[in-house]
């Protein structure tokens, strides 16, 4: 099952990337911060090779959030998530209906039959995909809008397996299938919007290239094309820059929170240097054991106690070395 899911994720990944083409400048500005995934979770679930599988890492963050909701979220959080999902589905249905109406109108544009076929193809694909997004949104609303209990919703978000399949004592795994079902309306509607923009740009560009009689004036078609290109690029660059800079701020804030938390742990009189204290306490226990055994005649026990004390001192030295490294990292960030 997992191999089949990964295969479909691989095949659909180019379309998902193409659907985000309008946000390309965002990914340039944020320097790839949105591609950051929880490496520990991703590697624990999919193996170390997940770093080279972007069609999987694109969903890892949401899968981890669903897993947190399933296993540690209370009923109020689960119900809040359902209400939020229903709201998103309703908004996507409205957007899909608007794009579909635009697609129907675009197929009636004057001179479309004389333009490059890419324009008509893009309009048709945009129309079909927008209708599909409305259909999938309505399907989700009918599924989640009923009187479904929170425990049933948790099980729907899970794939029915555990991290430890033998003992079944660990957390439930989140379902990749459920996540893709939830993402389908959004993915389809952004593809339809992107295709509509491509179709409109192709139509205007082809009209200018072939000098179709669409506008009065010698350079009417070029003026209309410029009127399309300039605001489109301006809005995409402006909003993409804002989103990209905000992504970088969020990553920086997360790093600073992690650094402050680590610094608090290192300097806390109660919890600080927990590894060092544990190693020191272990060494003290071993030393006491050595003193107690040294008065006895059992030399083998004394040898074992001495060896344990040496191991404890080595663990303490490693702990001090790790603390020194953490301090150097903190000094580099401050």
Note down, in words, how this protein is organized.
With about 325 residues, the protein is mainly α. The chain folds into 2 domains: about 1-245, no CATH class; about 275-334. Helix content is about 75%, strand content about 0%. The chain is built from 12 helices and 2 strands; from the N terminus they run H-H-H-H-H-H-H-H-E-E-H-H-H-H. Helix 1 (about 1-20) runs parallel beside helix 9, helix 7 (about 115-145) packs antiparallel against helix 9 and helix 11 (about 275-295) packs antiparallel against helix 12. The longest helix is centred in the C-terminal third of the chain and has 48 residues, at about 220-265. Keywords: Membrane, Transmembrane, Transmembrane helix.
Side-by-side strand order of the widest sheet: 1-2
Instruction: Kindly state the percentage of residues in helix.
Output: over 70%
Low-confidence stretches: 266-275, 292-297
Q: What is the approximate shape?
A: elongated
Please give the alpha-carbon distance between the first and last residues: 47 Å
Task: Give the C-alpha Rg.
Answer: 30 Å
Order of helices and strands: HHHHHHHHEEHHHH
Write the layout of secondary structure elements.
Blueprint: H1 2-19, H2 24-29, H3 39-46, H4 54-57, H5 60-72, H6 75-106, H7 117-144, H8 150-157, E1 158-162, E2 172-174, H9 176-209, H10 220-267, H11 274-294, H12 299-333
Antiparallel strand pairs: 1-2
Helix pairs in contact: 1-9, 6-7, 6-9, 7-9, 9-10, 10-12, 11-12
């Amino acid at each position: 099952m997992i191999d089949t899911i990964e295969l479909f994720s691989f095949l659909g990944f180019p379309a998902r990337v193409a659907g985000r083409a309008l946000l390309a400048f965002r990914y340039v500005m944020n320097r790839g911060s949105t591609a950051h995934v929880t490496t520990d979770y991703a590697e624990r679930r999919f193996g170390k090779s997940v770093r080279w599988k972007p069609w999987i890492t694109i969903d890892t963050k949401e899968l981890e959030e669903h897993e947190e909701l399933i296993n540690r979220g209370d009923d109020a959080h689960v119900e809040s998530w359902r209400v939020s999902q229903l709201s998103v589905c309703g908004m996507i249905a409205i957007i899909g209906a608007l794009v579909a109406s635009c697609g129907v109108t675009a197929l009636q544009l004057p001179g479309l039959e004389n333009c490059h076929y890419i324009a008509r193809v893009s309009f048709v694909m945009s129309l079909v995909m927008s209708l599909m997004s409305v259909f999938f949104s309505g399907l989700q609303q009918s599924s989640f809008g009923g009187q479904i209990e929170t425990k049933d919703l948790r099980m729907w978000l899970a794939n029915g397996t555990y991290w430890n399949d033998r003992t079944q004592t660990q957390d439930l795994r989140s379902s990749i299938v459920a996540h893709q079902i939830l993402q389908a309306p959004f993915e389809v509607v952004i593809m339809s919007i992107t295709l509509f923009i491509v179709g409109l740009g192709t139509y205007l560009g082809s009209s200018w290239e072939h000098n179709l009689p669409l506008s009065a004036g010698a350079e009417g078609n070029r003026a209309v094309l410029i009127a399309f290109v300039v605001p489109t690029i301006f809005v995409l660059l402006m909003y993409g820059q804002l989103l990209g800079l905000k992504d970088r701020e969020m990553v920086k804030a997360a790093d600073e929170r992690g650094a402050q938390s680590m610094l608090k742990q290192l300097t806390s009189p109660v919890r600080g240097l927990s590894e060092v204290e544990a190693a020191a306490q272990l060494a003290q226990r071993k030393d006491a054991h050595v003193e107690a055994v040294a008065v006895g005649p059992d030399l083998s026990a004394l040898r074992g106690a001495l060896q344990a004390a040496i191991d404890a001192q080595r663990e303490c030295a490693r702990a001090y070395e790790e603390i020194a490294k953490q301090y150097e990292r903190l000094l580099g960030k401050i």
